[in-house]
UniProtKB/TrEMBL annotation:
The keyword Hydrolase is assigned to this record: yes
InterPro entries tied to this protein: CBM5/12, CBM_sf_5/12, FN3_dom, FN3_sf, Ig-like_fold, Mucin-bd, Pep_M60_3
Matching CDD domains: FN3
GO MF annotation list: hydrolase activity, acting on glycosyl bonds
Identification of the protein by name: Fibronectin type-III domain-containing protein
Chain ranges of the Fibronectin type-III domain: 207-295
Biological processes per GO annotation: polysaccharide catabolic process
DNA damage keyword on record: no
Keywords noted in UniProt: Carbohydrate metabolism, Glycosidase, Hydrolase, Polysaccharide degradation, Signal
Annotated Pfam families: CBM_5_12, fn3, Mucin_bdg
Amino acid sequence: ENKKQLFMISASKVAKQNLIPFFEKWGLRPNNDTIQKVAALGYPILTAEIWKGTDSNPIKPDMPNVNNILEGNQFAWSLKGIGDFEFAKVNLNKSTEEMQIDLKAGVPHNYFDSTYASIKVQNTSGKVVYNKEFYGNKQQNAGTQKVSVKTGDFIELTHLEGGERATLINLDNNKRESLDKKVMYEVTKDGLKKVNQIVNPKPDTEAPTQPQGLYASNLTSNSVELKWNPSTDNIGVKEYQVLRDGQLIQTVQGTTFIDQNLTANKEYKYAVKAVDEAGNTSIQSEILPVKTKDQNVSYEKWDPKKAYIKGDKVEHQGTVYEAVQNHQGNGDPNWIFALSLWKPLTIK
């Protein structure tokens, strides 16, 4: 059984394809460890149904064009300097949509007092996700970095000498070529395509939609929680600006914000704006007036039999009342509602 599992892994390595579907059709069952090891190779999964092929009706396997160095799933670039010192190596695996850049410590080429080589990756939205310049006679540190690279992204490499000191290898068909002093590629579904320039996408000028549904909750004497419905955008909303009385007070990622350290019994006016990745700002939301509560003051319960003087405050059934004249209660439970005696102030 172990030999069968090892055979499936070895065959996938030799074929440079994930042959698990082929073996499963022929009754060879890979275990979980084999499936994981084959997947870790990073080779494309076999999709051509070669098990249906016959001598009279052969099925062509999924294989890249062996005559084209730019067709395939795995590529490697090598950048060398003085004495053929390889100061940078780049590996692209289209199946995993990942590029790994390995830098070696050292001086690329001490004869060049300028930028000797460079690597740049730009994604489909125009954002440069990796940009490294190698100064000829300056020491560089070792390091490894992985970058997401997908179909439609661009890769640019420069090298002051080019030739044998800047090379590309197609790891699927072992084709190799030397590079010019500057080369640019577009990542395609079939591999790579050389281009004359990196295409910058049309600038995004569309602003997000106006935030809707702004409301206040959890209101206290010194704080308020604001909530609103998310805006939409053609690319994506990056953040929201919260304004108080027309002034920006905070930028948040989500659709809630708690404003604190406010003054009791004071009205504030709030609004929200949405901002997208390109910096386009939406129309601000409708203005929401919010008045903070009074300071937390406790009042005695109203006693219908007690004597009160003008200005006394009492609490009855959740409402605070103020006496408008001096009077002596007679036990009538309705006197609290008599406007000649009591003035309702606010609901606690």
